[in-house]
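Exercise 7. Given the components listed, write out the predicted structure of the assembled complex. Treat all entries as one system.
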Amino acid sequence: MIFKKFLLQSLLVTGAIYLSVVLLFVVLDDYGLFFKDNRKIYTAENERTSKYLFTYNYIPSYFNGLLLGPSLGDQIDTSLLNGYKIFNLSMNGANTTELYILLNNVLKQEHQIKVIILTLHEYVTETSGRKTSHMVPQEYYASFSSIDAVKLQIRKLIVSQGLARNYFNESGYMNMNLAKTINGGKPTPLMLVSPEIVTPGFEVDENAMKDLENIIELAHGNDIALMGYFHPDPYSLYDGNRAQNEAYKSRVKAMFFREDLVIDFNTDAFDFFRKDNSNFMDGSHLSYKGEDFIIEHLNKALKMLSDNKALK
Amino acid sequence: MLFNSYIFIFAFLPVVFIVYFSLLKRRLIIAAKAFLICFSLFFYSWWNISYLPLILGSMIFNYVVGNSLASTRNIKISRSSLLTFGIVINLSLLGYFKYTDFFIGNFNWLTSSDVGLLHLALPLAISFFTFQQIAYLVDSYRGETKEYDFLNYALFVTFFPQLIAGPIVHHKHMMPQFSNPRNLVKNYRHITVGLFVFSIGLFKKVVIADTFAIFATHGFDNNLSLSTLEAWLTSLSYTFQLYFDFSGYTDMAIGAALMFNIKLPNNFNSPYKAGNIQDFWRRWHITLSSFLRDYIYIPLGGNQKGRYLTYFNLMITFVIGGFWHGAGWTFIIWGAMHGTALIVHRIWSNFGYKLNKIVAWFLTFNFVNIAWVFFRAEDLNGAVNILLVMFSVNTNNGFGFFDVITKIDIPFMLIIIIGAVIGCFCLQNLNLANKKFIPNSRYRFLFIVVLIIDLLYIGSIQPKEFLYFDF
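Answer.
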C-alpha cells in the first residue's frame, strides 16, 4: 500500500505540474499558434522552429505575402515593402526542400496569401532534404510542452533585460549586419563567405531543382502572384564563373510563367551595384546600403505586379 | 518503436501493462502471455513488418532444435550434428544479413573484381536474438535446459523490453521468472521502482546522451577540419554519449521489465571508473562479456591451455566481439585493440607490477576513449584522421565546433555535461541506488523532477534511435 500511494501521489503531482507548464506556454503562445489577437511576434533564436510554427496560424492570419529564400533573402526587411503585408519566411542556410515545407504548410491553412517573392540563388539548390531535425509536425506540440519552450522564455527574459539583442523583427527579417556587429565584427561561418575562399563552380542538386519547381507550381496552383529575383553577387565572384551562372539562371527562369515577374540583379544594368563593395557585408550578403537598394527595386516590382494584376 | 517516444510511453507501455495484468487477474494466464508475445512482436514490427517472419522463423526453429537437443528421446542424427546444424543456421542468417556486403567488398578489393553489393537492410535486433538463441542451443546440448513451454520460450526471445538491444538475457535467468506464479500478480513495489529506473534511463538518453551526441556527430562529420582540442572533445563526447545512450537504454529496459515483475540482468556497473581493462570488461556490457566468456573464450580453452593459447583465445574472443558489433574493419580493429590490451594487462599482472590507482584509471579511460574512435568512425580514414589530430600539435584553428548550438543552449549544456561527467566518475551506480529505493519524500522529489525533465526533453528533441540498434 505504501508503494501504491507513493506511486499515485508522485504521478498525480507530476501530471499537475506538467499540465500547468503546458497551460502556461499555451497562454504565452510565443509562436502565435492559438490566438488571433494581432500581436507582434518575433522570430526566436532557432529560426527554423519559429518560422515553421508561424506557418500554422500567425502567417496565414496576418500576412498576405511571403518572401522565401536562404540567408540572402532573410536580409530583406519585408515590413518596408509596400502594398502587401509580407512575411519573410527565408531562413539562414535554407534549401528549396525546406522552403517548400514552409510554403506548403502556410497554404494548407486558411490563408490570404496573394504574392510570393522568391530569392533565387544557386545556394538554395545545392542541397536537398531537411538540413536539421527541425520543421516537423512534432514541433507543434513541442512548442508548448518542451524544454525549447523553457529556453525561449529564458531568452525572452535576457532580451527584455537588455542583455542580448533580437536580430529579427516581427516580419521575419534577420538583421545580419546587427548580428555581425554584436559578434564583434567576426565572420560567423554559417553566415559569411569570404570572396577569396570561394572557389568558382557550384553543384546543382536535381531534387532541390524539383523542389524549386514544386514551389513555383504551388504558387501557380493557388493563384498567387509570383515574383523571383536573382540575388546580386559581387561582380568578381559572378564573373569568375559566368558561364555556369548564366546556364543556371536560364534553367531557373524557364520554370516561371510569362505572367510571373523575374528580376535579375546580375545583369550589366546592375554592374555599378555589384562592383561597389560597400553594398556587401561579405562575399554575398548585403550591407544596409545594399539592402536598401534591393528593397527599393522590389517595391517598384511589386507595384508593377499589382498593376498587372489590376489590368487583368 | 522507441522507448523515448510518446507513443511508447503514453500508449504502448500503459496499454500492454493494463491488459496483461487484467488478463492475469481473471486467471487467463495463457492469454496474458500470448498477449504479451503478440504485442512484443507488434513492438518489433513497428519499424518494419517485413522482419517479422524472420524473428518468428528463428524462434520456432531454435525452439524445435533446442527441445530436440534437450529431449531424452532418440533422434535420428547425432546430438552434436544437430547442435552444429542449429548454430550454422543461426550464424548463416546473421552472416547473410549482416556480413555479406563486408565480404563482397573485401573480395572485390583483394581480387580487383566488381561483384555487386546486396545492400541488405540489417533486421533489427538480429545480433541480439541470434546470440541469445545460440546460447539456448548450446545449453540444451549440454543438458542444462529443460523442455520449456513454447509460450515461455517465445516470451524469453520476444519480451519487448530486452528484444531490441538487450541486455542479452539467458534462458536460465528468464524462464523461471516467466513461469513463477508470484510474478503473475501486480506488484506496486516493482511498478514504482521500475518506473523510477525507466525515468532515470530516459533522462540519461534524452538529456545527457543526446546532448553529447550533438558534439560527437558534428566532430566525426567534420573530422578533416578538427583542431587538436576539437578532436579530443569529439572523442570524449562520443565516449560519454555511448555510455549514457546504451546504459540509458538498459535502464529503460530493466525498468519496463520490472513493471511486469521480470528482473533483467544489469549490463553496466560504472565502467568508466574501471582501474584496468579487465575491470572495464567486468563493468561494460556485462551480458555480452558473459556471453563471450561462456560461449567463445571458455569453449576455446580459456586460460587452461597454457599462457600463449590464453593470449590467443583472448584475442580471438575480442575480435569476434568486435565483429559482432558491426561488419567493418573499424569494429575488428576495435576488438583487436581490446584483445591486445587484455593480453598486455595479463602479462603485466603476471609480472606482479602494480600501478598507482589514479594512473591506472587514467590509462584505462584514455585507452577506452581512443578505441571508441574506431568504433564510431564511418571508416578507417575517419578514425585515423581524428587520432592523428588528437596526437599532433596541429595549427588548424578548427572549424567552429560549437556552432551547432545556440547561445541559450550553452548554460543548459554546461550543466548537463559537467553533471554527467561528475556523475559518471563520482556517483554511486544506479543499480545500487535502486536497491535502496524507499518511498520517502526525498525519492518522491527526485522522481517527480526527473519525470518532468524527461517529459520536457522528449517533447523537444525528435526521438533519436539508440546507438546499439545498429548492432
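Discussion: The mean pLDDT of chain B is 88. Chain B is about 70% helix and 0% strand.
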